[in-house]
Design brief:
The chain is of the alpha/beta class. The protein has three domains: 43 residues; 110 residues, Nucleotidyltransferase, domain 5 (2-Layer Sandwich); 135 residues, no CATH class. Strands 3-2-1-6-7 form a five-stranded mixed beta sheet, with helices on both faces. Strands 4-5 form a two-stranded antiparallel ribbon. A hairpin with a 4-residue loop joins strand 1 and strand 2. Helix 4 packs parallel to helix 6. The longest helix is centred in the middle third of the chain and has 29 residues. This is Transposase.
C-alpha cells in the first residue's frame, strides 16, 4: 500500500483497468471504492506519468489529433514507432482551445534529457515546420522523415479539388444551356462525376467492383481526372514498391516532372521537403501506426462521453499503454 492510502497497489491497478474499459461511476457503484477514491488513484497515476520518460527510444512519431472535430481543437501525440506505445499527449491552452505549440512540445522533449534525445535516430512528422525546427534544435542525431501518408493526403486533396471544380463547372453549364440535347449531354457527364470521390481517392488496389466501374466511368468522362488519378497512383506505388534510396530518388524526380502541371501545390511542397520525403527510403519509417492509436483515442473520448478536462483525458489515454502499479 502507498502511504496514506486505504487500498493496495494491486487493487489500484485492477480499478484502473476496469475504469479504462467502462467509467468511474459504474465502477464506484460496485461499492469497493468511492468515486473520490478512484479519482485519487488516477491522480496518483498522473503524478507518476509526469515523472516518466521513454527508454530505448530510437524512432519517434509526432502527429496530432482533434479533441473536438472541426473546432480547431488539436493536440500533439508522441509515439514510439518501434513499440507502438503512446508516449505523450501535449497541448497548450489559448482562448479556450488546446493547441499544438512548439513551446509545450519543446518543454516536454527537454525534460526527457539529452541522453534520451541523442539516441533518437528518426522522427516521422507531418509537414509542419514547427516540428522540424524542434527536431533540428533538440535531437542532433535524428533524421527528419516526412510521413508519406500526410504527403499522400495533400495529393488527394488536390485531386479532390479538381473533381469538385469539374462538377461545379458542369452544373453551371446545365443552368446556362437552353438546348435540350446539350443539357442532356451535360447531365450525363454530371451523373458520371457524382459519387466519384472515393473511387478517385481510395487506393485503386482496394476498390470494390462497383467503385472500380465508377472509376472507369469518371476516366472516360474527364481526361484531366484520368491523368491526375494515374499520377496519384504512381506516387503511391513508388513508396510501396521501392526498397532503396537511390531508386526512390530517381523515381520521385521523374514523378515530380510529370506532376508539376496537374499537382502544382503538392509538387512545390515535395520540393520544399525533398530531403525529408526521400528519407523514407532509408528505413521505410512512417507514422502509419499512429492511425491505430488515434482510433483508440477516439474510442476513449466516446466511452468518456467527451472530456472537458484535458488532463483527465491525457491520463486516461496514457494509462492504456502504461501501467504504474
Amino acid at each position: 500500500m502507498r502511504r496514506k492510502r486505504i487500498y493496495t497497489k494491486r487493487l489500484a491497478h485492477k480499478i484502473i483497468q476496469e475504469v479504462l474499459e467502462n467509467d468511474i461511476h459504474s465502477i464506484a457503484s460496485k461499492g469497493i471504492l468511492t468515486t473520490e477514491e478512484i479519482e485519487r488513484i488516477f491522480k496518483d497515476a498522473s503524478e507518476q506519468l509526469s515523472d516518466s520518460k521513454p527508454l530505448n527510444l530510437k524512432r519517434l512519431g509526432i502527429d496530432e489529433i482533434a479533441l473536438v472535430k472541426g473546432k480547431g481543437h488539436y493536440c500533439a501525440v508522441l509515439i514510439d514507432l518501434d513499440t507502438s506505445n503512446l508516449i505523450a499527449i501535449l497541448g497548450d491552452v489559448y482562448d479556450g482551445l488546446r493547441l499544438r505549440t512548439q513551446k509545450v512540445i519543446g518543454e516536454t522533449l527537454t525534460q526527457w534529457g539529452i541522453e534520451v534525445l541523442e539516441q533518437i535516430e528518426e522522427v516521422s512528422i507531418d509537414l509542419w515546420q514547427g516540428y522540424k525546427n524542434l527536431i533540428i534544435e533538440l535531437m542532433p542525431n535524428a533524421q527528419v522523415v516526412a510521413d508519406r501518408f500526410h504527403v499522400m493526403t495533400q495529393i488527394n486533396k488536390e485531386l479532390d479539388t479538381q473533381r469538385k471544380r469539374e462538377k461545379r463547372n458542369v452544373e453551371e453549364l446545365i443552368k446556362k444551356t437552353k438546348l435540350a440535347e446539350k443539357k442532356a449531354e451535360y447531365e450525363q457527364i454530371l451523373l458520371g462525376l457524382k459519387s466519384s470521390k472515393y473511387p478517385l481517392l481510395k487506393n485503386e488496389d482496394n476498390l470494390s467492383k462497383e467503385q472500380l466501374n465508377k472509376l472507369i466511368q469518371v476516366k472516360n468522362i474527364s481526361p484531366v481526372l484520368k491523368v491526375m488519378h494515374e499520377i496519384k497512383e504512381k506516387f503511391r506505388k513508388i513508396f510501396d514498391n521501392t526498397n532503396d534510396w537511390y531508386t526512390g530518388v530517381f523515381k520521385l524526380g521523374m514523378w515530380l516532372s510529370k506532376a508539376k502541371k496537374y499537382f502544382p501545390k503538392s509538387n512545390n511542397t515535395i520540393i520544399r521537403w525533398f530531403d525529408e520525403v526521400i528519407a523514407y527510403f532509408d528505413n521505410g519509417t512512417n507514422s502509419g501506426v499512429v492511425e491505430g492509436i488515434n482510433n483508440k483515442l477516439k474510442l476513449i473520448k466516446r466511452s468518456g462521453y467527451g472530456f472537458r478536462n484535458f488532463e483527465n483525458f491525457r491520463v486516461r489515454c496514457l494509462l492504456n499503454w502504461h501501467s504504474f502499479y
